[in-house]
């Protein structure tokens, strides 16, 4: 208890509060610009922390991390372009709400759900980190493969009209994920003798091409004289969430936060996967699943609570085991080491006061994030009032700049254009883009762990059903597919 009080004393200073606010603003801005992820924001700001005290330095970087995860929802909602991969699921209902003149409502729910998910994650990190870390330590290749299969079962839920087209889309995504140099054998796969493809296709590059560029192309026949719709200021900034909507969103936020914590605490996953899984579970358990994907506020709530719920949880394996949960925490792990803290079991003993100051500070980060989000939200919402012919140019500029900044490569700019053109034709053929995204996200995870599991079992597939956790994930995935099929059958009979 004394260690916790010492940590609280270290955290309670006006300098820490100021640096948290600065970090949040930077994180929100970076997260809202497609291509400039929170990972990049943390990397750029690490040199600025060299002269700071450890608590202040880490809190600034955590604020960038959390702010960036929330900031990605702004562009996902307003212009159908997720700022980060963690906000991809927010596209499903966020942008349709904007099209209905409910941008302010969607943004309000995003910051509300993000804060709740972040706070739950922070409290779990504070009180249950060692216990959760023991569970995730049981995960081996078989469990990760089953987790990926479980994630791919989401395809059934997001393929509104045709599961067959959804599966084709997933196969396209998995194909894209295999491009580049094989990490195990060193073999070149689907590079077409192009040296630029040896590193594969970056996820954020694929995101920008799939959603942003294709959206611009879909509106290529836009006529400012006939198609421009004037949106009043009141509809943008005064469309508030009702008490009934808050009440409806309690369950989705709870489910999203819980799944976010569990998935986030599992190394190698992250907020994007958590958001997809949570969204699918809420949609399937909903009394009105047909409204999801058409501007359902519950969809925004569950997506944002899940991806922010994963933020604090990703630090659990990093702090307790020295195993980073995702890319951002891998960078944060380096920052910890720079400031003389070696993540692992000994950290709680040797530098417990500093560690508890950081964990308590994460709670403050999420509270400040809500304040910052509510203060600036009216300005975000007014983006929808910009004429589309102007907005399209701005979006395209940001997309090209963001794609270049990801790897400092002009070739990535060509990639997003190719992805945009292909996804445009797929959308015209009534294909959903989300299954493609799921294939790209989960393909590497599934492939790598499938091969590792077969090596461990001498080529026997029984390893996936003889391990309890792996079997559990597979049964849940099968149950999700059966539940979707039953509901879809009943809906077809009703129609």
Report on this model:
The chain has one domain (2-220, 235-494). It is built from 25 helices and two strands. It has helices spanning 2-11, 14-32, 38-45, 54-79, 91-99, 103-136, 141-152, 154-158, 163-177, 203-218, 224-227, 233-237, 243-248, 250-264, 271-285, 297-313, 315-321, 327-338, 347-350, 352-381, 388-407, 411-428, 434-456, 463-466, 468-494, and strands at residues 180-181, 188-189. Strand 1 (180-181) and strand 2 form a beta hairpin. The longest helix has 34 residues, at 103-136. The radius of gyration is 22 Å and the shape is globular. The mean pLDDT is 79.
Question: Which key features would you list for this structure?
Answer:
2 strands; two-stranded antiparallel ribbon; single chain; 73% helix; mainly alpha; 495 residues; 25 helices
Could you give the order of the helices and strands?
A: HHHHHHHHHEEHHHHHHHHHHHHHHHH
Q: Shape from CA axes?
A: globular
Number of E-state strands: 2
Q: Quote the average pLDDT.
A: 79
Number of helices: 25
Number of spatially distinct domains: 1
Based on CA atoms alone, the radius of gyration comes out at 22 Å
Distance N terminus to C terminus? 61 Å
Residues in helices, as a percent range: over 70%
The proportion of residues in beta strands is: under 5%
Q: Report on the biggest sheet.
A: 2 strands, antiparallel
Unreliable runs: none
- Please list the strands of the largest sheet in the order they lie side by side: 1-2
Q: TL;DR?
A:
The chain is mainly α. It has one domain. The chain contains 25 helices and two strands.
